[in-house]
Amino acid sequence: MRWLVTTGRDVPLDALKRLLSPLGAEVAQDATPVPLGDTEQVVSVEGPRDLPVRAAAKPEIRSVDPDSDMELY
User: Fold this and answer.
1) What does residue 12 show for φ and ψ, rounded to 5 degrees?
2) How many Å separate Cα 41 from the centre of its chain?
3) Is the pTM of this model over 0.85?
4) Coil, helix or strand for 61?
5) pLDDT tens figures, 27-55
6) Cα dihedral 12, 37, 33, 25 sign
7) Contact by Cβ (8 Å): 2, 60
8) Which end of the chain is more exposed for a tag (fewer CB within 10 A), N or C?
9) Cα 7 to Cα 3: distance, rounded to the nearest angstrom
10) Residues 51 and 23: beta-carbon distance below 8 Å
């Protein structure tokens, strides 16, 4: 499933990859962080259906939301 993961802008992409790996998720190919204002960024991620639950224990990950693709969730 494709997700949009929001983190602080201070979280480098490599660090996010390391955070996601034990959760069964990975940054989508060729994804780059997109700034959201001055303090946040969003990155496209591939992961399991329960990724929001798995990521809840990671304070670096502020939110996990379904991507807006026309795929059924």
Assistant:
1) -70, 155
2) 9
3) yes
4) strand
5) 999 899 999 999 999 999 999 999 999 99
6) positive
7) no
8) C
9) 13
10) yes
Report residue 27: phi and psi, to 5°. Answer: -65, 135
DSSP 12-49: -HHHHHHHHGGGT-EEPTT---EEETTTEEEEEEE--T
Q: Which helix (H) or strand (E) holds 67?
A: none
Tokens encoding 46: 């591939």
Residue type at 53? V
Percent of the chain with pLDDT over 70: 93
Length of the chain: 73
The SS3 of residue 64 is strand
Q: Domain 2-66 classified CATH 3.30.70?
A: yes
- 37's CB contacts (< 8 A; 6+ apart) are none
**What spatial distance separates the first Cα and last Cα of the chain, rounded to whole Å?**
8
Instruction: Please say if the pLDDT value at position 73 is more than 70.
Output: no
